[in-house]
Amino acid sequence: MKRSSDAREAVLGSVRSALAGGQRGSADSIPREYRGQRHVEALPELFRERVAEYRAAVHTTDSTEAPETVLGVLERADARRVVVPEGLPAQWSDPVAEHHDTLGDRPRLSTTTLENADAVLTTCTVGIATTGTIVLDHGPGQGRRALTLLPDTHVCLVAASRIVDDVPAALAELDPAGPMTFISGPSATSDIELERVEGVHGPRDLHVVIVGDV
Amino acid sequence: MSGVDLGMPTFPDAAHRAVRDAQLRHNLGRATSTIRNKRAAVVDELDDWEQLRASGAAIKAHTLSRLDTYLERFESAVTAAGGTVHWARDAAEANRIVTELVRETGETEAVKVKSMATQEIGLNEALASAGISAWETDLAELIVQLDEDRPSHILVPAIHRNRSEIREIFRREMSGSGAPAPADLTDDPVQLAEAARHHLREKFLRANVAISGANFAVAETGSLVVVESEGNGRMCLTMPDNLISVVGIEKLVPSWRDLEVFLQLLPRSSTGERMNPYTSVLSGVTEEDGPSNFHVVLLDNGRSEALADEVGSQALRCIRCSACLNVCPVYERAGGHAYGSVYPGPIGAVLTPQLYGVESEDTASLPYASTLCGACYDVCPVAIEIPELLVHLRHRTTRERKGWFDRLTGTAMRGLGWVFGDSKRLGRAQRIASLGGRLFGRRGIGRLPWPMSRWTDARDAPAPASESFRQWWERNRTGSGDER
Ligand code: SF4
């Protein structure tokens, strides 16, 4: 495309002439005096509290009790068809498969199937305590992005050891080579008189299950 | 420049607008004070807010000082990750590129994530004239689009609408472009959101093309970051097979790590939350996940020129959080439409004249839409010295626009001169105004008809007397001769 290479040169040229003679800073001189780390006493407790403030449901449990907790959540959500992404450890997926229709994503589930699924069960990469956020990098146990978007209930297992204090620590753990989704509570809008309404296009119910001893 | 509203309104128009403005004032006052308080609470939680702010400002200033380098770096990172980068000098070029890209897919519709850049270039209109329907999917943008209205706030584009107005818009307009609103729709926000979910779901699942903007573009990794609340952004970025993102060249940040600053600054400044519900990061094309055909259109449209102004270029740091709108006494009274631009409020007053030039009186008058109280600077997460910029731009417009001061504050004063210069016109304007006075009682009115609107857009006018001095004079001193 000839036009686009002309435009490229024109834009870059215009930027260069605007900057001509000006100071060009060095990235090293950017002040970073904010806290790289927040001194949070009990990360899982803060995480729990902050997630709950978004009106997500939070459950704290341990690895022995966790399958029971997950089953309870799915039952209360009346979830019959549950999407289980590849790579979800058998200790979590097997109990679900015993009681529900589980849908694996290999071969890829159709959009319609995902739409008709009731829930999805995943892990996450990190949890951020200060902001009450879970981050999915869509690796094993988390599935491609559509899996956690179309079903109306998302149940996410968070290992307590994966909870960090704040955003800087979380980003340091993440590799932006692939897609990522930061989730803080259920889908919400405040567009109507700034009144918060949960559940617009994303899952309306978010359940975060903190597994204390993992 | 598009979006400038300068037609002399007929009286019914003027009255209609003024009535709507009373509602607007009410909606706006409630909304801005709510967000202001939420913001203050979550900002106070962080004892290093000022340090974050200083870093945010420095990262942006640094990026701008080496923008050419970072743009090239971003381009190669996106390309390496399987995306294609296009460059657009101006709005027309960007629109052409996007239209062409949509045409290549053979589709005639696209779903859109709320994006200031695409509003700035008038993309929806350009696509429409090429026979392509672009569906806005953000709830507020949907409201605005259905009503053929214009956004009035960066973050909450339908901030000037209350729930019963929204219900009416949904009932009237939804069926024209997809699933209709349920017959028993009430004005409960939960029901309204549900109606929007239903209306848009079929569009998300059907669409094969999505168009987005980006909050940040990371030079090092070629990543785009889209910050949102409703999940419509995730839908657009994930479901269709083709994605076109229009990104202003000032959106760049050098490295992934820099986001640790902005992902703290933006949500707290913007919606007053510790974190917004959804932030999506995408870096090029990922096999079996999301679009396989990904294009980024880098948009200049006046930005490189603004960059040349040492003081003015600060405005390019803006991360569009809209905190400055919510604290601005002028914005709170005038509303977003008064700025005649997609960028309203204090940031609009300094950005619009720079992006569009000061040749037009509408843009040249914007730096005057301020009381220089400084509240905007205090809340700005990237510490843009908006009051200083306003003064600087006032100087610049005076310098660049010969005869500017003869016309005083431009259109406003010239318009007033035009009204005062002819007794018939003055009489007409006063009669319109005094009818306004009778309609509004003594409460004060928001907006006078053009050209006096240029003055009342920035301040409250007291309700006019139901009889003007001239009417009184004519009634009492008929035949007395000289009127002046
Ligand atoms: S100027 Fe500052 S406060 Fe205003 S929208 Fe931009 S970043 Fe936010």
UniProtKB/TrEMBL annotation, chain A:
Database matches in Gene3D superfamilies: NagB/RpiA/CoA transferase-like
Domain LUD: 46-211
UniProt-recorded name of the protein: L-lactate dehydrogenase complex protein LldG
